[in-house]
User: Fold this.
Amino acid sequence: MATPIQDNLVTKNKEYAWSFTDGHLALPPAKKYAVVTCMDARIDPALAYGINLGDAHVIRNAGASAKDALRSLVISEQLLGTEEILLIKHTGCGMLTFKNEDAAGIVRKNLGEEAAAELETFKGDFLPFPNLEGAVVEDVEFLKGSKLIPEKIKISGWVYEVETGKVRSVV
Assistant:
């Protein structure tokens, strides 16, 4: 039996597919850039950042973490030709609200010791951060310092304000 979320997927996809005309778009992004942004449900990257279908790779994860996105960025740049990275974190991010110990404790309480042991898969690092702008700078420096991202790749760091819908440059 389908859930209401699954029913919505099927219904909305039928509506989308009925008028879909972009099946001809090439695999590599047309504008040769990638965006790393947060998975926060209040952010619509296409609308907020002016991304048309086929323009860019949009990589989303908790906190817009460059470390978490690195595998996808290497694929985007090495295999699909992107030449620029926009790293965009946001105000009011949940990653500002906890420490690794807090998240691990919740996992342990809710899911048990065996589940908590599996946190070692990512060394128990949920990649939280205490300072928004500092985290943007740190992630941009991480990417610029990575041997997996060539020096020719343009990298910039931004903050999206969920309260106003505006972006501002950090680095």
Summary: The beta strands are 33-38, 56-61, 84-90, 154-160, 167-169. The first strand starts at residue 33 and ends at 38. The chain has a mean pLDDT of 98.
